[in-house]
Specification:
The chain is of the alpha+beta class. The chain has helices spanning 17-31, 35-44, 99-110, 117-123, 190-209; strands at 69-71, 78-80, 127-128, 140-141, 146-150, 153-162, 165-171, 178-183, 185-186. A hairpin with a 4-residue loop joins strand 4 and strand 5. The longest helix has 20 residues, at 190-209. It is globular and about 50 Å long. The protein starts with 16 loop residues before the first helix and ends with a helix.
């Protein structure tokens, strides 16, 4: 490798999409199949996530679909960024989905339907996520999953984004309740963006804790 590891494994946290690209490469090396084929056969089909798919070179989205808008300058206009093919991100985010499918997926994660007990334990071994402490003190990160503390304990969660769109997904530790928050606008003003994130976190608490 050209660059040494940023940190020792399991000691600290730093997000990088490259880690998920490497995971996709490992899937392909071990199985001999493209990563999205394995995701489809092992996750999408068993859970009947029929509205989640790998778009390939498809130039359009199936109707109906949400619209996404991005502001490139604080005083600039909102630009429609809906037609953005996520395959550019490969295994770091190259699927198209719906809020319903995402909620169902997270319930399956929370209920242990996708992984063996030992794998679930490894998934949930977390370290403090330094980069998220300004959003919510105590946020931790495991193997591709976040722990967000809240007034009723906490939830397993993750965030994701494409130009003009973002999601915040979460599930209770027992998998009983899951929620998906979808934002269709990305603002350039950092203060306004931070205010929106704070409201997202408050809404997430209300939905998870009831």
């Amino acid at each position: 490798m050209l660059h040494p590891p940023l940190i020792a494994a399991g000691t600290q946290w730093s997000y990088s999409n490259t880690n998920y690209l490497v995971a996709g490469m490992l899937i392909e090396r071990v199985t001999g199949n493209r990563w999205h084929i394995e995701v489809r056969s092992r996750i999408l089909m068993p859970l009947r996530l029929t509205h989640t798919f790998y778009p390939g070179d498809r130039p359009t989205l199936p109707q109906p679909h949400a619209q996404g808008y991005r502001q490139f300058a604080p005083d600039g206009p909102l630009v429609d960024t809906t037609v953005f093919n996520p395959t550019v991100t490969a295994s770091a985010g190259g699927l198209v989905s719906t809020t319903t499918d995402l909620a169902r997926f997270w319930q399956a994660v929370g209920r242990g339907q996708l992984l063996r007990p030992g794998q679930m334990a490894a998934l949930r071994q977390t370290v403090l996520a330094d980069g998220f402490q300004g959003i919510r003190p105590g946020i931790r990160y495991g193997l591709g999953i976040m722990w967000i503390p809240n007034r009723c304990g906490g939830s397993w969660a993750h965030v994701g984004s494409m130009p003009g769109m973002s999601t915040l997904t979460a599930v209770t530790p027992d998998g009983h309740r899951s929620t998906v928050l979808y934002l269709a606008t990305e603002l350039a003003d950092p203060d306004r963006a931070t205010a929106i994130t704070e409201r997202e976190m408050a809404l997430l608490d209300d939905l998870i804790c009831g």
